[in-house]
Amino acid sequence: MRQDAEARAQMYGLLSAVFLHPPTGDLLRQITDREFLADLSAFFSREAISELEAFAAGASVEADLGSLRQEYMDLFAVPTGRYVSPFEDVYRGESMDGQPARGPLLGERAIAVRRLYREAGAEMGPECKELPTHIGVELSFMSFLCEREREAVSHDEHCLATGDGAAARCRALQRTFLLGHLNAWFPQLCKAIHAKAKSRLYRALASITEEFLARDAVELLLRAPADEGRPSGAAAGIAV
Predict the structure, then answer these.
(1) Which residues form the domain of 159?
(2) Is there a contact between 106 and 218 (Cβ–Cβ < 8 Å)?
(3) Using one digit for the tens of pLDDT, what is the confidence trace for 168-178?
């Protein structure tokens, strides 16, 4: 269980960095590394991983970094023609007739997310300039929860099996956040990225993120009877 939580924390942390910051040379080298791709291919579906492998096959860190950084700005930072608006609020509005509509930033979704952050004892660091409903911040919150779970399991693995203690409460909050937030809106963002991204990189990363979120939710639900517990506080903050 401890290793599982650690691996999940690392994956959420990587995906958070992908959406919070323009790509770096180190990131591109990591995701085009053959060993890294082999590890991913053992976990993700062929459909989810094939585009990342295709990107890696033709990628050059030196030649492509500038255009990929511009791609990031176009998609996630500058609200022009290719901007996808990476905020939960935007994808979870509701019009008068019940049809999907764009929601306001810093509305009820942001209030709900902030409440969960506080309940977990998480804080957004002063270096993070994004809103609490940014996809990168929400993924970072999941990394935070997985790391707190790992720490709790290292102290008492028995509590996770019986549904008592901090580790079980971390998992309960992970379920709440995945089902009530990330999995309720990321598929729409994924679709927008596929429609507007020019490079294979962000289409691939969006597909991998969508599949990872869906699989993690299923795993957490399957384990729910054994580790039921009400989420409660944990010290420290979100590293974003």
Answers:
(1) 2-226
(2) no
(3) 899 999 999 99
